[in-house]
Amino acid sequence: MMKKIAYVLAAIGAGLPGVLRDAAGLSGVALISYGAWMLHPAAGFIVAGALILTGAILTARGTARSE
User: What is the pTM of this model?
Assistant: First the structure.
């Protein structure tokens, strides 16, 4: 039983840095978009879409290079 618990904790610990990085990126996108929305509501949606699209393109390019 203790080996299973240690295995699960090790697996969680290995994946945690990626989750934290993604959470920081998403919160950054949200804050930038909210700041633009405070200036003009339509700008918030435009900025959010542009940042998400940029992230998707960069992720796809990174995935294509590793294959």
Answer: 0.66
Could you tell me the residue range of the domain that residue 58 belongs to? 25-67
Q: Which of 12, 18, 10 is nearest to 59 (CA)?
A: 18
Which tokens is 56 given? 């998707």
Q: Is residue 19 part of a domain?
A: no
pLDDT score recorded for residue 21: 81
Q: Is the CB of residue 46 less than 8 Å from the CB of residue 36? A: yes
Give the tokens for residue 34.
Answer: 């909210």
Token pair of 40 as six digits? 């003009």
Dihedrals phi, psi of 43, to nearest 5 degrees? -65, -35
